[in-house]
Structures are given as structure tokens and as C-alpha cells.
């Protein structure tokens, strides 16, 4: 059975300039079977078609929060109430698993300095490791995993592709290259314009997850909704890696 791992980010992975209000870089992965993803995609499209009359609207966390661009429609409180009820229902009820990795940049700089520039690659490695652990737990044969990441730029995508190829040839600290190859793991880069609903779900989960890492005791209703979706092992949340 084919599985997808849709990955999006929250925060800036650079270390040279630090935003004290958002000192975290987080990658969020949505791990979902191909069959279940078809359901999620269709339900997202129903929301889009009902409220906007077309499926080309792209759910973006910041625009939704700010009621910006297409989401200015949410200044209509009745439409806003309907939108959040339907969107939250999909987020809560549809089957998928979250695996996220957060880098606390202040602590990271204190340990490794600002010249280290492998934050994105490190976070990706963490997510891939835990995705393999999750797939192992399914005890299913013939699982294939495709990792889908939103394009960032030719230079950045090339560097990430090279990092991924190194993982395939060497493995990670906890997952051998044989285990990665057993799942036929491959990576592809998609443009935001391609309107990939899986990437949009990852985007919606990334921001509240990052806010939780920054202020775990602050009220965070959006994170409360997605918290049960994080990968667990023996009752312990294993799908949210915070480093260091």
C-alpha cells in the first residue's frame, strides 16, 4: 500500500537572523495512506467548492488566521463559523498521522553556533526516522513511501535532494539504508500552485505545533485539535521531536 508523507514548515530555518518572538523552526509531516488521502482531498475540495465556488483556493495558515486574500470572506461571521466547523471536522475525524520535528534555534546556536546550516536537513532526518518506525509498526508488506515537499527554490531543493540521496546511501543514526530502501522511499517537490491538499493539511498543523513548542502552557485550541494525531508508541507521544 502506498503512503504519502506531506511536509511543510513553520518558521525560518536560517540562523543568522533570529526572531525572538518565533525562535523555532519546525517541519511537520502528514503521514497518510493513499486511500485515506483521497478522502481528505475530497473533503477539502467540498469545503472549497461550497464556500468559494471552486477548488483552486489554497488553504494557508497565515492567510486564514489574518482573513487575508481569499479568506477575507471569513470576515462574514456566519461563513467563518461554517468554515471552521467543517475544516475542524476534517482535521479531527480523518485518518492520518502527524510527525513533526522542531529545532529550538536559541539553544541550537548556543550549542553549535550560527555557522551550522543543516537545520532543515536535521529536522527532515528526524521525521523520516519516525515515519519508518511508524510504518514498521503497521506490520504490512509492500508499503511504498513518497515524501512530498513544497518547492522552496532551485538551490534549496537541490541541496535537500542531495541530503536525501545521502540518507538513502548511508541511512540515519537510527534507520539503516536497507530499511529506507525496503519502503522504496522517494522524494518529490511540488509547487504551491499545484494545490496539493496534503501539503495544505501539513501547513495547517505546522503553525500551532510550532506555537506549542514556543509556549507549551499557552492556550492553543488549534494544537489541541491535532494533538491526538501525533504518532504514539506505547502510549507516549513519539511524533513530536524537539531538539535540542
Automatic annotation (TrEMBL):
It comes from the Bacteria. This is DUF3800 domain-containing protein. It comes from Algoriphagus aquimarinus.
Amino acid at each position: 500500500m502506498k503512503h504519502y508523507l506531506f511536509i511543510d514548515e513553520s518558521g525560518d530555518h536560517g540562523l543568522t537572523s533570529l526572531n525572538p518572538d518565533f525562535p523555532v523552526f519546525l517541519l511537520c509531516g502528514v503521514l497518510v495512506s493513499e486511500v485515506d488521502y483521497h478522502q481528505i482531498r475530497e473533503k477539502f475540495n467540498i469545503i472549497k467548492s461550497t464556500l468559494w465556488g471552486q477548488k483552486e483556493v489554497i488553504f494557508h495558515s497565515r492567510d486564514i488566521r489574518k482573513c487575508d486574500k481569499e479568506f477575507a470572506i471569513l470576515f462574514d461571521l456566519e461563513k467563518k463559523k461554517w468554515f471552521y466547523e467543517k475544516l475542524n471536522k476534517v482535521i479531527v475525524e480523518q485518518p492520518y498521522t502527524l510527525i513533526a520535528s522542531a529545532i529550538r534555534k536559541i539553544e541550537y546556536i548556543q550549542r553549535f553556533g550560527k555557522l551550522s546550516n543543516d537545520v532543515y536537513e536535521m529536522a527532515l532526518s528526524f521525521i523520516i526516522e519516525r515515519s519508518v518506525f511508524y510504518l514498521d509498526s503497521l506490520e504490512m508488506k509492500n508499503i511504498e513511501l513518497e515524501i512530498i515537499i513544497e518547492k522552496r527554490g532551485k538551490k534549496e531543493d537541490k541541496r535537500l535532494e542531495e541530503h536525501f540521496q545521502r540518507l538513502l546511501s548511508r541511512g540515519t543514526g537510527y534507520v539503516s539504508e536497507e530499511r529506507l530502501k525496503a519502503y522504496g522511499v522517494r522524494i518529490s517537490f511540488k509547487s504551491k500552485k499545484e494545490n496539493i491538499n496534503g501539503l495544505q493539511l501539513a501547513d495547517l498543523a505546522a503553525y500551532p505545533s510550532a506555537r506549542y513548542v514556543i509556549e507549551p502552557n499557552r492556550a492553543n485550541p488549534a494544537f489541541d485539535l491535532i494533538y491526538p494525531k501525533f504518532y504514539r508508541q506505547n502510549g507516549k507521544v513519539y511524533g513530536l521531536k524537539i531538539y535540542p
